[in-house]
Design a protein that fits this description.
The protein contains 13 helices and 18 strands. With 409 residues, the chain is an alpha/beta fold. It folds into two domains: 172 residues, Acetylglutamate kinase-like (Carbamate kinase, 3-Layer(aba) Sandwich); 146 residues, VC0802-like (2-Layer Sandwich), CATH 3.30.2130.10. It has an eight-stranded mixed β-sheet with strand order 3-6-2-1-9-11-12-10, sandwiched between helices. The protein has a six-stranded antiparallel β-sheet with strand order 14-15-13-16-18-17. Helix 7 runs parallel beside helix 9, helix 8 packs antiparallel against helix 9 and helix 10 packs antiparallel against helix 11. The protein is globular, with a radius of gyration of 24 Å.
Length: 409
């Protein structure tokens, strides 16, 4: 008998018929003798609808009241799924995050989990119940309802699996696993049987939307076996996210090509080349709660330098205003320029650690297609380049082919 935590996203429970399909799938696992905990999101579109209602009443909704309100979306889903399971003849109980007592901090709309009281769930499992838990939400020490931010149901599922020491945490989505890249751009993209936590973290942070990055971090930290499966296909083993030491010795050097269109580049030109100048530029950006990604500094021969960095495209205008109105006059910069028409493309694979020439092959492949690289960033297991937005899909396709990711391992 195994203890399995399953998580179903909003599209998986988007209609009552889909909720019944989820119930049938869960019932099959339970019929095998496994103990099952199910975590569900709100029905597709429901969270957006609730946020829209809040904004009709208050232009900038109070964060505490917003959490109180949007958390009701999951409450509907868990009640309906528990009813559907009962209708199939199974014992089921649903709980909100506060009823389970998923304890979080009080950072409304983006709370972090501090601890979970799993005793109630264990009692129910021992009595033969299927336990259905609301994802995305918890409660702070004062009893206030909190939410974990977009994609937070993934984190709920992984956190419950860690607390219960589950044999596996299964994340059911609208795709049947993790692919070498987006099949909508490269039809030849392959589903990976396994991928390491490190690679999945890089893929998630670089734009892959399969899993929320916090859930991958959580799973890696607490050694939770994580599997991505399709909620619309009856069969399939999906993709297992595991540890490097558990993977095949002959695993491919490169696991995938990630990309992100939501990037913008800013350049502060003609900056005095002196100690502390990077902090004087990037400090005010950080103070404005704007995340900086890639940074490149070019040192000139006249004691001046240019510093370029990238931010999320939504933060572009805000960052530009800070640089032009606050930073540039203060440090005596010559000019501030920006480009919101860029994209980041990344080659990811733990095999880079033991193989040379990956960077040169990446750069040569792009050069042969006439794609200019504007910025480069590397780590042990990834190489990221910034290119013009219009070349992004071409870059993904040619790199996918160059590293033979369309061929079975």
């Amino acid at each position: 008998m195994a203890l399995i935590v399953q998580k179903y996203g909003g599209t998986s429970v988007g209609t009552t018929e889909r909720i019944k399909n989820v119930a049938r799938r869960v019932a099959k696992w339970h019929a095998r003798g496994d103990q099952i905990v199910v975590v569900v999101s709100a029905m597709a579109g429901e969270t957006n609808r609730l946020i829209g209602l809040a904004k009709e009443v208050q232009a900038h909704p109070d964060s505490r009241e917003l959490d109180q309100m949007v958390s009701t979306g999951e409450q509907v889903s868990i009640g309906l799924l528990a009813m559907a399971l009962m209708d199939l003849g199974h014992k089921a109980r649903s709980y909100t995050g506060s009823q389970v007592r998923i304890l979080t901090d009080n950072a409304y709309t983006k709370a972090r989990i501090l601890g979970i009281d799993e005793n109630r769930i264990r009692r129910d499992l021992d009595e033969g119940y299927i336990v259905v838990v609301a994802g995305f939400q918890g409660v702070d020490e004062c009893g206030n309802i909190t939410t974990l931010g977009r994609g937070g149901s993934d984190t709920t599922g992984v956190a419950l699996a860690a607390a219960l020491k589950a044999d596996e945490c299964q994340i059911y989505t609208d795709v049947d696993g993790v692919y070498t890249t987006d099949p909508r751009i490269v039809p030849e993209a392959r589903r990976l049987k396994t991928i390491t936590f490190e690679e999945m973290l890089e893929m998630a942070s670089l734009g892959s939307k399969v899993l929320q990055i916090r859930s991958v971090e959580f799973a890696g930290k607490y050694k939770v076996k994580l599997r991505v499966l399709s909620s619309f296909e009856e069969e399939g083993e999906g993709t297992l996210i595991t540890f490097e030491e558990d993977t095949d010795m002959e695993q491919a050097i490169i696991s995938g090509i990630a990309f992100n269109r939501d990037e913008a580049k800013l350049t502060v030109q003609g900056v005095p080349d002196r100690p502390g100048i990077a902090y004087q530029i990037l400090g005010p950006i950080a103070d404005a709660n704007i995340d900086v990604d890639m940074i490149v500094q070019n040192v000139g021969h006249d004691g001046m330098t240019d510093l370029s960095f990238t931010v999320h495209r939504n933060d572009f205008q805000k960052a530009m205003g800070i640089l032009k109105n606050q930073v540039a006059p203060h440090i005596g910069a010559r000019d501030v320029t920006g480009d919101a028409n860029i994209a980041k493309v990344s080659v990811v694979g733990v095999g880079m650690r033991s193989h040379v020439g990956i960077a040169s092959q990446t750069f040569r492949t792009l050069a042969e297609e006439g794609i200019n690289i504007q910025m480069i960033s590397t780590s042990e297991i990834k190489i990221s380049v910034v290119v013009e937005d219009k070349y992004m899909e071409l870059a993904v396709r040619v790199l996918h082919k160059a590293f033979e990711l369309d061929q079975a391992a």
